[in-house]
Amino acid sequence: MITTKGRYALRIMIDLAQHETDAYIPLKDIAARQGISKKYLEVIVKDLVKGGLVSAASGKGGGYKLNRAPSQYSVGDILTATEGSLAIVACVAADAEECPRAESCHTLPMWREFDTMVHDFFERKKLTDLL
């Protein structure tokens, strides 16, 4: 399940793309436009910075801005930066240990197929598709 954190991360990224200039955009402006607590956005934007999706500057004239053109961000990049794995079940997560039942598991192929569909969907969907 995609949490509020992931959904709000998308809203932050959309807002940054819509108001993109050479200047940094203050988080208080994004919070006001989106109707989301600035304190909660601070938590989310840290993940976006850590994931290399946005740059931050502090002090006067500080705020956040995109590191790339909006067309170069996939929704999958954004969700993964804030949610971690989007795997529907633990056994298909990228960092999952080999399941001892994998050879005899009748449902594993279905989970893998579904995981691929979700991954591919979010990777094809670009930030510009949401603008």
Q: Please, how many domains?
A: 1
The SSE string, one letter per element, is: HHHEEHHH
Going by CATH, the homologous superfamily would be Winged helix-like DNA-binding domain superfamily/Winged helix DNA-binding domain
Q: Which fold name corresponds to the CATH topology?
A: Arc Repressor Mutant, subunit A
User: Tell me, what's the shape?
Assistant: elongated
Strand order of the largest sheet: 1-2
Biggest pleated-sheet summary: 2 strands, antiparallel
Which CATH architecture is right?
A: Orthogonal Bundle
Which secondary-structure class do the elements indicate? mainly alpha
- The first-level CATH class name: Mainly Alpha
Distance between the termini: 23 Å
Number of helices: 6
**Average pLDDT across residues?**
94
Strand tally is: 2
As a percent range, the share of strand residues is 5-15%
In terms of per-residue confidence, which ranges show pLDDT below 50 for 5 or more consecutive residues?
none
